[in-house]
Structures are given as C-alpha cells and as structure tokens.
Amino acid sequence: ETGVTQTPRHLVMGMTNKKSLKCEQHLGHNAMYWYKQSAKKPLELMFVYNFKEQTENNSVPSRFSPECPNSSHLFLHLHTLQPEDSALYLCASSQDDYRSTDTQYFGPGTRLTVL
Amino acid sequence: TQLLEQSPQFLSIQEGENLTVYCNSSSVFSSLQWYRQEPGEGPVLLVTVVTGGEVKKLKRLTFQFGDARKDSSLHITAAQPGDTGLYLCAGENTGNQFYFGTGTSLTVIP
To answer: Quick check: B3 and B100 in contact, CB under 8 A?
Structure first.
C-alpha cells in the first residue's frame, strides 16, 4: 500500500468537457508530482509542487491546469483536451523534491480516454 | 532524443529462467533507480544505485550500475510469475535532470 490515492481510476471525456483528477497522499510528504504515461513513451513529468508551490512545469499545454491547495492534495484540471491526451495520469509524492535519492510513491493512476 | 534506452522492450520467459534487462544512456548519471509497475498500479521503487560499479541485491534481483555511470542492468534469477510487470529505470544526470527510461515489459509464464 503506497499511501497515495487517485480518483477517479477511469475517466472518459469529450473534447469540450471539463473534468478534474484528484490525488491525495497520507504520507506527510512535502513534494507532489503529476506524470503522464503513454504507450511506447517514457513516463513524462508534467508538474512538480514542493510545499504547495509549483516548482516545475515541463512545457505542459495550458489545457492542463494543476492545483495544490495543501501539501496532501493535488488536482489536475482538464479542459478542451485532445484525443492524444489519452493516457494514464500518475500522481506521486516524496518526502522532499530530491527525485534522484528520495523514494517517490506513486498512486494507481487515472486512465483517461478523450473521445 | 531518448536519454535512457531500455532493452529489450518486451520479454516473455518461462518460470525458473534467468534474465537480464538493460538501461543505457550516452549521458552520465549521478544516480539510477529501478521501479516495477504491475498492471493497474503505479511504479514501485526497487532500488537506487549511486556509485559507479555498485551492485545491489534484492532477493533474486541483482542490480548493477556501470563503472562509467552511463548504464545499469537488472538480473533476475529463477523468475517467478510474480515478477511480471513493467520495469523502469530512472535517473538524474549531471545536469540535475531526472528522466524515466522507455521500460521493459516482462511476462513470466507459469
């Protein structure tokens, strides 16, 4: 059990819909991450939050909007997505943002399909 | 540009066989991690290696970091069906950029 939960586990949405993904960690960690996992591509880091502040945005399109109201919760707001945005979206947390040495704990992911 | 290439991409073996998967780069990494991701779950960290030439063992799994810190290997002895999953390497290069590899999907047939 990782202590990182994500909801919903599956989501199907149209290109004009607005939806949100939720991530919650019960580990007392300070850093949280959103990743995108597509078939045949490496895991792509999208956003990093450290102590509720966004510290990294890896050129993610504005149709993805993250929100971190506190260090335990992370949201990914979705608007006007494209079919190529269909993927598994993974949330992770770690004690601090030292990815090379801190253990990142991943949630089970949200499988997103954009029609 | 693929910074961390993993091979093979897919591997299907019989229970009890041994296997090795590789993670290669042209860049030097200050550390390398190996994760396993089972279907329907997120990746779980198996090990972190930080010293060139370092070897770590986790039961039937042996991890090695190359002397030049550009590559790593994972060797599994007597594979079990429970070893089935996607194996991911990840590392931070000397430019403080953290990347995941392309992954190796392993299936162990009972």
So the answer is: no
